[in-house]
């Protein structure tokens, strides 16, 4: 239904009206999103959430007033700046982190990669204790995941199992930097080089983490990130694939943009100078290149409104990373004397994590269960989460999925039964974190717990 058009009250230009809207938006932000006092036991302590200011809303308003609803100027700016942050050539913006994983893996199936392309039946090494959409793209492309165990308490891939996982069909490794903690990149990169394997770094939880001083996401052939509200920056929904290889950038954009062969930017035509002079497949000579498809692709583009928020959020990213590290340290220092009950997380050697969450393992010998401790925290309005899917091979979705598995996966089962995590995101205040520490310590040190552990 067409909305009635109102007349401006004066002869203000569109730019002048735009300025007025921005002035009102500043007032709106100050009124609608003011800070609230934290009240222990009453106020929620979430595991994650969006952290934004008036600048984010101003960027969103700019994109909205442009009414360029698909990928546009803000998307181009975000891709350029995000690639610069990682010191890489290219960033390809998509609509979610899961789409980023699907796109990164799918582009490696292109015939344009010749003998290096991934084919149905090829194997991909990954971990059993992880997030489903790190693994799902392999299954969706007909590959066979090979599941290895993880290490506790880094919660990353157990690199001692790599040689056992390798076979003549192994073509790629795709694993995540768990909860922002880098995996052993020395071992993984060396393994991939020795066997000429593709490496995809799932960096969705680890933006800003470094390994030997270098940004994670810049070691592999491809890396993925997510901009869901829980992550290091947010677009609401959104994700990105990063690469330093021009050929992979072209393939990523093709699979993202319906599988088309054309590489023109949105709203542009004939970048190649021969739009009506191509001969591909069995199409007639001169068939419009904009409607020529070289891959079975998708439409995974983000909107420019999402990208506008991302551009504003990027300015805050360094401060967000610092806040996450500081919050992690506050929790660690406050819980370190509970070692008889809990296993606290450990950074991978040579790394500086950009923590997504604070994982806590309840020891088998503790006089309480993981669920009892997590339930106590939830009763105090402190949010908790499990470490994603636990052992994915015990999830209903994967019962009949073709795969190989290395060993009995004892640590994946340990994660499934004993581990949960609490938040470290920048929206948490020192008072909130101290309340988390006090609540965990109080539960662990109950007279019944102390008596049981002490004998």
Give the helix level as a range of percent: 25-40%
> What is the typical, i.e. mean, pLDDT?
94
- Report strand order across the widest sheet: 1-9-8-5-4-2-3-14
Question: What is the total number of structural domains?
Answer: 2
Instruction: Please provide the count of β strands.
Output: 15
At CATH level 3, the topology of the largest domain is Aspartate Aminotransferase, domain 2
Named at the architecture level, the CATH assignment of the largest domain is: 3-Layer(aba) Sandwich
CATH top level assignment of the largest domain: Alpha Beta
Q: Helix tally?
A: 13
Order of helices and strands: HHHEHEHEHEHEEEEEHHEEEHEEHEHH
C-alpha Rg, in Å? 24 Å
Strand count, sense and barrel status of the largest sheet are: 8 strands, mixed
Instruction: Give the strand content.
Output: 5-15%
Secondary-structure-derived class: alpha/beta
CATH superfamily of the largest domain: Type I PLP-dependent aspartate aminotransferase-like (Major domain)
Ends distance: 74 Å
- The poorly predicted ranges are 450-455
Apparent shape: flat
Report on this structure.
36% of the residues lie in helices and 13% in strands. It is an alpha/beta fold. The longest helix is centred in the C-terminal third of the chain and has 32 residues, at 304-335.
Short description, anyone?
The chain is built from 13 helices and 15 strands.
Features:
Aspartate Aminotransferase, domain 2; alpha/beta
């Amino acid at each position: 239904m067409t909305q009635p058009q109102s007349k401006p009250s004066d002869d203000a230009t569109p730019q002048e009206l735009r300025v007025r809207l921005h002035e009102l938006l500043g007032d709106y932000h100050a009124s609608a999103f003011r800070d609230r006092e934290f009240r222990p036991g009453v106020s929620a302590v979430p595991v994650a959430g969006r952290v934004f200011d008036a600048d984010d809303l101003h960027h969103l308003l700019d994109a909205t007033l442009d009414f360029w609803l698909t990928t546009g100027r803000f998307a181009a700016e975000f891709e350029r700046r995000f690639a610069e942050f990682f010191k890489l050539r290219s960033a390809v913006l998509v609509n979610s982190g899961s789409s980023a994983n699907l796109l990164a893996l799918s582009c490696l199936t292109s015939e344009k990669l010749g003998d290096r392309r991934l084919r149905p039946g090829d194997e991909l090494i990954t971990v059993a204790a992880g997030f489903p959409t790190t693994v799902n793209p392999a299954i969706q492309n007909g590959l066979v995941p090979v599941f290895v165990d993880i290490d506790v308490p880094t919660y990353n891939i157990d690199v001692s199992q790599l040689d056992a996982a390798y076979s003549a069909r192994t073509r790629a490794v795709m694993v995540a930097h768990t909860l922002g903690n880098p995996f052993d990149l020395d071992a993984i990169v060396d393994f991939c080089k020795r066997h000429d394997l593709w490496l995809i770094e799932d960096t969705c939880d680890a933006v800003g983490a470094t390994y030997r001083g270098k940004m994670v996401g810049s070691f592999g052939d491809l890396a993925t990130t997510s901009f869901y509200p829980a992550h290091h920056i947010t677009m609401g929904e959104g994700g990105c694939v990063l690469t330093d290889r021009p050929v992979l950038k072209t393939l990523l954009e093709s699979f993202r943009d319906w599988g088309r062969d054309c590489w023109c930017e949105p709203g542009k035509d004939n970048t190649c100078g021969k739009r009506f002079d191509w001969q591909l497949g069995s199409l007639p000579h001169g068939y419009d290149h904009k409607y020529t498809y070289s891959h079975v692709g998708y439409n995974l583009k983000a909107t420019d409104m999402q990208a506008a928020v991302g551009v504003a959020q990027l300015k805050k990213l360094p401060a967000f990373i610092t806040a996450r590290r500081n919050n992690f340290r506050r929790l660690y220092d406050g819980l370190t004397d509970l070692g008889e009950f809990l296993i606290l997380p450990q950074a991978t050697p040579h790394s500086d994590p950009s923590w997504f969450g604070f994982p806590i393992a309840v020891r088998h010998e503790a006089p309480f269960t993981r669920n009892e401790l997590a339930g106590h925290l939830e009763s105090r309005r402190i949010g908790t989460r499990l470490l994603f899917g636990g052992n994915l091979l015990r999830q209903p979705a994967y019962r009949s999925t073709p795969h190989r598995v290395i060993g009995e996966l004892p640590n994946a089962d340990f994660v499934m039964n004993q581990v949960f995590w609490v938040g470290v995101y920048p929206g948490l205040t020192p008072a909130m974190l101290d309340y988390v520490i006090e609540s965990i310590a109080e539960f662990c040190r109950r007279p019944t717990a102390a008596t049981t552990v002490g004998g």
